[in-house]
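Form 12-C: Joint structure prediction
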Amino acid sequence: MPTLDLSTLLLIEQTLNGVQFGVMLFLMAAGLTLIFGVMGLINLAHGSLYMVGAFAAAAVAGISGSFILALIAALSAAAIAGVLIEVLIIRRLYDRDHLDQVLATFALILIFSEGTRWLFGSFPLFLDIPAALSGPISLPGGIEYPRYRLAIIAIGLLVAFGLYLLISRTRIGIQIRAGQYDREMIGALGIDISRLYTVVFALGAALAGFAGAMIGAIQSVQVGMGEPVLILAFVVIVIGGIGSIKGAFVGALLVGITDTLGRFLLPLIFAQFLDPSSATAIGSALASMLIYILMAGVLLIRPTGLFGAA
Amino acid sequence: MRERHLNILVLALLAAVPLCAYVSDEPFTITLSTKVAILALAGVGLNFALGLGGLVSLGHAMFFGIGGYAMGILASHAQSYTPIYDGLFVFEGTKSMLVIWLVAVLAGATAALVIGALSLRTTGVYFIMITLAFGQMFYYFTISWPAYGGEDGLSIYVRNGFPGLNTLDPIQFFALCYGILLIVLYFFWRLERAPFGLVLKASRQNPLRVTTVGLGVYRIQLIAFVMSGAVTALAGALFADLNRFVSPSMFSWQTSGEIMIFVILGGIARLCGPVIGAAVFILLEQILGDLSQFWHIYLGVLLLVVVLFAKGGLTGLITRRGAS
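Section 2 - Result
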């Protein structure tokens, strides 16, 4: 394959960044949409579970130096935190209206954030990329791309595929799907519904914690890192349709790529007919709004999202 | 205690505390009371949509911020003597509160009209997520827009003026904010009993019936959302004047959450619910903030207890009547 010119290389690199961002958003959005689909619960504290995963990974990596152990710690810490809050608090909210759910999970954010600040302090922690995955990798066409980001894409896609198998091929998957259609009926069929709810919540929490740990290695690990991602995951779900895993996947990639390419391309486009400084200002300001404009556009055409039930 | 008596007591207390502080010369207490009045106003604004209309908006910080930036932009141009727009006509900044309020209310109402028209196409959990997302859009926009301070925000050196008052005097500025709060509360009280308010409440309880009667739920909810946005924007303009500072944090999702907490803590759809909520919030911030820098943990626990066990908020507890 011939070597590509510089601007094409940059474009491909930015597109890959967008995919990487999208794949991580999917891990967040999948948990949220599952929890909403099965239990009818809107969980604002999902971002806190992402943060718990990142902090657990950073703490364990700091002690042991092993990235694999850090990932296991992130998964289990987030899952345990998920089970704890489900059993203690969330369980009481399933029959409540959305307002109560919003407020109670908002309260959980306050408790988680301040608790983490109390434990770890206000300064960000850093999680190192494992040595085996650091540095760039050469792709066909002369593209140099960070190995770790490529690994995130691969792992994210693998998790997405695993989730698909879990939902479509296993017994617990059948129960989850049945729960989305008719909660009372599967209870009547003798399935322990409160156990199922706890399992789904723990699964969503583990996915969020895993995403937190993976992203923690390329950004800093700090209190409040979860909420911006949570709100983006909401945008993803609104675009994809609530309750739909497929919608979450498509929506996440769409949001990830739109956001990343918007930040890259819009300043360049405005530079064609504006002076450089105002092109950067207007371009980046508009780019920060792009995914919300995308969301508004989807809403105008399909108020229940691309794959949502009407 | 009857709710009406509680309301009179709360409003009298809110006036009495700064008056006592004025006599004993404690300007900080007056400023805190002013903050309560302004935040309560923001809560009353949300109460139009949330309490009467049942519209769970988690993006009201956008209107609060729009009001704040309306003040910030107008006043910053006035203090630097540069026009905002100089082309076909000249549009100058201003230091007059009356003009600033008008601009804030109009801007808030316009934003609420556009955002509401989009968001009200959906209901339930979609509506919550969408309002939250649009709020975040404004937040990121103000951060990345460098003309008005970007992430650092804007400082205004002198508080804006109101004819016949010295707004730099804390007690006079408090009186102004308190007066506006009373006017808006009176409007809320009348609206709740007016045909419009009844239809709005009915469309919260049973939208299908309202539609069957021949009334447009969408249009009614949109009007309520616009009123709500306008009042919250006015509160934002006053808040900016209180601090003489605006920053993107006015747009943050935490601000939306806090405005919602005022309403819920005090009691949803109660006339003085937001006043009680805002007062308790500020009191907690002062008392618990002294005890521990992690006072948000206690706030979180309190909020959980109220949500799980005290329907109707503090007003509901005191009047021994749950939410209607």
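Section 3 - Comments
The longest helix of chain B spans residues 217-243. The first strand of chain B starts at residue 85 and ends at 86.
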